[in-house]
Structure formats: C-alpha cells, structure tokens
Amino acid sequence: MLKTGLELKQQQKLSPLQIQTIKLIQMPIQELEQKVRAELESNPVLDDEPDPESPSESKDVSIDAIKEDGDIPAYRLKVNNWGKDPRPEYNTFSVQEGFTQSLQRQLGFRNLTPRQEEIGTFIIGSLDDDGYLRRDIPTLVDDLAFRAGMEVSEDEVEKMLKVIQEFEPAGVGARDLQECLLIQLRGLKPSPEVKTAIRIVDECFQDFSNKHFQKICSKLDISQDQLKAAFGKIVKLNPSPGGQVDDTYIDQSQQIIPDFILEEHDGVLDFSMPRFNVPEIRVNKKYADLLLDAKGSSERAQKEAATFVKQKLDSAKWFVEALKQRQNTLSKTMRAILDYQHDYFLDGDESNLRPMVLKDIAEKTGFDISTISRVVNSKYIETHFGIFPLKYFFSEGMENSEGDEVSTRELKKVLQECIDAEDKRKPLTDEQLVVKMSERGYNVARRTIAKYRSQLGIPLARWRKEI
Description:
disordered N terminus; alpha+beta; 3 domains; globular
C-alpha cells in the first residue's frame, strides 16, 4: 500500500513542460498571442525573426536538438505549426457572454467609488440563477461584514441594488415576481397601455395572478379592451431575466477570433487553425552558440553566463514544445468533435446535434476529461452557418420512443413547437405538455418539462393565457 501511495504522489507531480502546456491549452488565440509576445520580451533566447544564416534549415529541426551534453546547435528550432494566415484582420462576430459577466461589465461602466463597486459585485454574486435576489437587505449587510470584511449600511446596499436593477436584462435584481414585472414595465416607453399595466401589477397583483379579470376591471375602473391591451404588454415581459446556469447568455458584439475554421467540400469536413497575429518563434543562434562555446571553459564569468543561457534555453524549449503540444491537442480534439457531430456540421440542423459530453470526446482522443474541458473553454469555431463556442456542441441527452438518442436542444426545440401551437386561450399545462411530447415520440417527465420550459424563458400556463 505504501508503494502505491508513493507512485500516485509521483504521478501527480507535473513537469515544467506539462504545467506550461496546461496553461497554453486553455488560452483562446487572443491570449495566446499576448503570451507569446510576453515570452519573446522576457526571454532573450526566443526570437521571432527568421534565422539569416539558415532560414530554410531551421524549419524541420526537432526540439530534441537541445540536449544538456549534446553537440547539436540548439538554435535550429522553429515553431511554424500553422503557417501563414491568409486573413490579416480580426473579425467582429455576435458571440455569447455569460449572465454574471455581463452584469459585472455593466457595473464597470458606472461612475462608482471602489466601495460602491465592491458592494455591487457582492450583490451580483448573490443573485440566483434566474436573476432574482432572494436574500433581504439586512442579510446582505451581515454577509458583507462577515465574508467581505466591509461595514456597510442597509441604505448603501439598497442604493446599489437600485443601480443593478437598471441593468440589462430588464428585471434583474428583483426580489419577487411583482417587482420584476414592475421594473420591466417602468423601463418601457410610456403609453396608456403601459400605464394601465403598471397599475394592474402594482395595485391588483393577486387578482392578476389568479386571472380574476372582472375584479381588475372593477377595481381600476377600466374596460375589457383596456385590460386586454395592458395584459398584452405584461405577457411579453420576462419572468426569469437571469435564465439559468448552463444557457445564460446574451448576444454581444465583440472582437472574437475563431480558433478553428470549418471547411466543407462535397460532404467531407475539415478545419484549419488560423494563426492571425501569433508570431512564429525560434531559438536565437547567438545565445545557443554562447552556451556551446562555454562548455569546458574554466573562466567563472563565462560559466555563469552559460548557466544563465542554459536556463533560458530550457525555458524556451519547454515553451516551444508546449506550443506544439497545444496545437496537437486542440487539433485532435476538434477532429473528434467534427467526427462525433458530423451530420450536424454539414448544415447546422440542430435536430442532428447528438448528445455529447466531455467524456465522449475524452474517450475518442485518449485525453483526460480535464484536458478536453480546457480545450473547449473559451474556444470558437467559425462555420458556414455561424460562429459558435465549442461548449455549444456539448449537451446531455435521452432516448426517444424508438430508442434513438436525442439531445436536450432537440427536446427544447420540440417543446417550443408544442407551446407555439397551443391555444393561447387554454395554454397547455406541464402535465399536458408531457402528453404532447409523448405523442411526438419523446417520453419526458413533468419535472423535465418544467426545467426546459424555464430554460427557454417560457412562463407557466396561467401566465401564457390570453384574454
């Protein structure tokens, strides 16, 4: 048992190369560019200029040329995995930004003191997955004191909450459904219908929740037509502004550089990995020669210089090899994803998107799940039907009535179709949706229907009812 424990301990110790590779794998291409340039600046052994003496020979020399006691010049090393990228400029795409990330970004746009920003950040971190704040102000004050070491007043927290309630998506930061709807209505352009809707939610919320339309008309002294017009405004509001953990994204226009570009020729799928502004690097001949010339020297200064250069050469070796391993890992993972989702990548039809989890790709590539997770994180692929984060292609699944596996996205699509086709005067309950889904060959439990409906931002049946 002792021997096994020691062996496990040795396996867990990562080499400098492994550590470097792990860090590079999880970087998107923009960060990789910055990292390579930072390494070029900090390590004089690395160079991004072609070797003037042997520009052609440096291409094919292996990194193994750098040996502690070897006689092969170490400068004959170059990373040119991608080749020249024919696309010189960045492209602007519509990409997805996380819910919390979006709120934090909006907080940064406000002219706040560091203290206010810290309170705001704490509030954002306290929101539930659906965007609601279900903790009262005194509790937040206590939490700020105990967890963040900040002594704040309830008034300070209340004021910052009001700031966050002005953020998009509208309704975020509400403490209950009534406040959520009021925040959204007060943000709309004023009109008779909006004003009536505000009165309904503010003064007759219980009757509104119970669909007591006649009571509302009597209390507010409005006609059926006025009620119907106001009700039309309310049902378009979002009762769950935060969405949910796994799909909470809002479109933002950002500069995103795809890590992969899909290529399709007569049904054959392939991909390229654009280099963009990541420079090609090699080991600088001058420093490699210094190391080689210093061997066997008795001069202390020269030996110290050689030791310094050897350290830099080792660092360069690890970095360049880590770049190669990153390239190989990303390429092998993307190939496995393309093969697994082949039918989907032909035309982007979501019904062809197979259930796929990290373990599936780990088994196909031979990499562990943590490596696949690092590859998938913050990486994008450009296709002929749009640009997507690699995370988009992963989802759990279930079997349909014929025993075939279907993805959660297909289930959500069918659920949406069922709700779109319902009679809005008698909208389908979750139990009735279970029957409808079953009729279409999908055996889904009621709690699953409720979960998917929530993730799609679709309210309960009573909230979908139209007059």
